[in-house]
Design brief:
Blueprint: E1 2-7, E2 10-15, E3 18-22, E4 55-57, H1 68-72, H2 76-81, E5 83-87, H3 93-100, E6 105-109, E7 114-116, E8 122-127, E9 136-142, E10 145-151, H4 157-167, E11 172-176, H5 191-216, E12 220-224, H6 249-258, H7 263-266, E13 275-279, E14 282-286, H8 295-315, H9 324-337, H10 340-346, E15 348-355, E16 360-365, E17 371-372, E18 381-388, H11 389-396, H12 402-408, E19 412-416, H13 422-429, H14 433-447, E20 453-458, E21 461-466, E22 480-482, E23 485-487, E24 494-496, E25 511-516
Helix pairs in contact: 9-11, 10-13
Amino acid sequence: MTITSLGHAGFLIEAGADTILADPWFDPAGAYAASWFPYPSNELIDLAGLERANILYVSHWHRDHLDEWFLKGRSKEFKERVRVLVPNFKYKKLRDTIRECGYMNIEECGSFESIKTDSGTELSIIYDANPLFVDSALFVRSGNINFLNANDCKLSVADEEKLVKRYGAVDIFTAQFSGATFHPTCYTYSEEKKRAISESRRKAKFDRIVSSFERLGATYYIPSAGPACFLSDELFHLNLNPATVFSSAADFKEYLRTEELAVYSAFTEILPGEKFILSGGEGKVMRSKSELAPAREYLTEYANKKKEIIAAEIERYRHPIGNILSDTKQHFRSLYANVPALAVLAAANLEVKLTGEGSGTFFLNTVSGEISDSPFDNSLQRYMISLDSFWMRAIIDGLMSWEDFILSFRFSIERDPDIYNEAIIAFLHLETEEERKDYITYHEFIGSGEKERVTRICDGMLIEHDRYCPHNGEDLSSAAIKDGILTCPRHFWQFAIEDGHGLNNSATINVIRKEATE
């Protein structure tokens, strides 16, 4: 098996007679209104040469994975010939977008469904059931070689165990090692607090990859799916910044070295255009001849090359502002009216602050749906989002979804108390009535799920706690407990062992201290 890096989460996988093109991202304008770009640049990849692939896989609809610019630009012959595999998500945005790009042979695959090619390669797509975390991973088996491309899909412990039980240990494992969220990046914390949060989240991410690597019995690990780099003037400071969750591959490798973890010797980084070849049980890397300049110097040059493209891309989103404050209020009334139960679940006082032309502020009580020009006097959590009015106009006019805008990091946010509120994010992200209702149903399902419990020893004390995380149903029976804190291995929700209350969330798990042990 030969795996060629295409940059970011993109790979060309040559498995026997099959060639699989996975998550190609080459748009010259990056993604999310020119906020994200592949790092390092993958501009030297021969795009026409990628059309030798007979299978195309796209993991999910985020713009750094679903690249419409690239997909539309392929030849008519390729679009008619290639076999397109996508997860069978309930919402068909991924399938429909690829179809609109001209592709003819699209197959929607169920989670863990076995897909076999004429030459004997077996593939399987694995994906999450949570409507807010629509993502997938790709497993490829060719001969006796197993490759798991998890990209930025957070597989559950149960899914990883199921995979090994079915196929055996994984030979090559690739997965996202860097965070990619707006927390704490877009929050109005002090720099010191951002650093502390980022350090904790980076370590949790690293530990999660180590745990997956060990559980999968993997032999080689290829870092992938980030971090993207940020080349616009207002976001450039996010690069190489310890006050963000965007850790580099070098950061992860150094962590593995200092912790003396086995993954260190398995760590196999390949840059865009480089190949990893596994044959006869031995892996080797075919390196490119060119070397990257030091990171800061490289990023500065990269940003200068992209300056005009970035300016032109942002200009595409500039519509006349109009009566932006009034229109924004109406926009949020419409969000509330689209399944009010989701807004009620968020239970927050949402403060919307517009800056720049037409600036102004208003408040939405998500429980009552009331909009006011003055803050509400109640006990609900306060969430504040601040953005330039021209971005708000782009959202209102349908040039950009809330999901894409939030991933652009072109806003700031505050919350009090400082506790994660997933429902307020769902309130903004989920666009259709069906998605919003399904989120409520899923939330209720997780909350009323089987109350199985586990008994463990913690600091010499026998304790009993709920087995499944109230967030996404992850199995907590082997979740790490350190300094009196239990951390969910999937999304890093933390709970105090003393009483089960959430430390970085508003949920709880039922914890009972039973007796001391010898």
